[in-house]
Amino acid sequence: MQQILAGSSPLSRLFYLFLFAFLGLFVASGLSIGVSRIFNLSGADAGVLYVTLFLQSAGMFLLPAYTVAAWSSREPLRYLKLQKTDGAERGFLLAVMVYVLSYAFVAFLTRWNQGITLPESMHGIEQYMRAMEDSAMETTDRLLSGQTIGTFLLNFLIMAVLAAVAEELFFRGALQQFIEEWAGNGHVAVWVSAFIFSALHMQFYGFFPRLALGVLLGYLFFYTRNLWVPIIMHLFNNGVIVIVYFLRKEDDWTANLDDMPLSLTFGVGAVLSVFFTVWAFRWYLSGKRRKGASEEADPS
Question: Model-level pTM greater than 0.85?
Fold first, then answer.
């Protein structure tokens, strides 16, 4: 199989990636149902939810991405860009900067997206989508409501660490690279993979901020060619949510920002957020160009 995929087209790799993701989701769902029946638990039980999240992250994202990469290359870790690269520390700093600087813009998109109303003729569809959103939020609140250290560590490991690694392996390490090889354009790959990243979460009222997050993660990978860089930002994004829920600080700046009305001040802040985020990428690229020029001038 490795020899077949090694010489296959990017479209074939995309096909197998999604095929294995579908099979992984199917198996994960079956195992979750089995666990709930064996221990006589309901699907809403916290233990079943943790098992389901773990199995879905591993079966739908992590294993398919690594399997297709391993069958496509003799060095899957190198192909997925998981090996250390020169200037990695600067890339990690960029990830943190982009997370902080883009937060106001993503929060603005979140508030705007939540307020979207569909035409009256699509009222039934809107009710269905909002019910899905409420159900997802209820599940998140149920898992993050625990106030013990053990629950906090479990939430951080599964919802922050595992989710960041598994999703970045799938969407950036595998999907984005396959699309770039097929389309021959890295920018197209960033946007298409970000669109799929957001769509697969099945939450319309979080679609646009998640699309923006996917674009940011995609460009972090595109410019650094180091998968650990978007993993770091993804980890920050999810980890901050877990930490804020655990600390339960109602006056936390992130909670206040998420609840701000769509005012002119908020809009100006969002525009400035975009400006400084673009500046962060330009800062990184200018440093990368200077380093490349100095190495060419001094090949020794």
Answer: yes
Write a three-state SS string for 3-32: HHHHCCCHHHHHHHHHHHHHHHHHHHHHHH
Domain positions in the chain are 80-297
3-state secondary structure of 45: coil
**Neighbouring residues of 169: CB distance < 8 A, sequence distance ≥ 6:** 61, 62, 65, 66, 80, 227
| Nearest alpha carbon to residue 36 among 60, 55, 20 | 55
Give dist(CA 282, CA 291) in Å, integer.
Answer: 14
- The C-alpha atoms of residue 179 and residue 174 are separated, in whole angstroms, by 9
91-136 pLDDT, tens digit each: 999 999 999 999 999 999 999 998 888 888 888 888 888 888 877 7
Structure tokens belonging to residue 153: 């560590």
Closest CA to 43 of 117, 138, 121: 138
In the chain, where does DSSP find H-type helix? 2-6, 10-38, 46-56, 63-72, 76-79, 88-114, 123-144, 149-155, 163-168, 177-183, 186-199, 207-224, 228-247, 253-258, 264-297
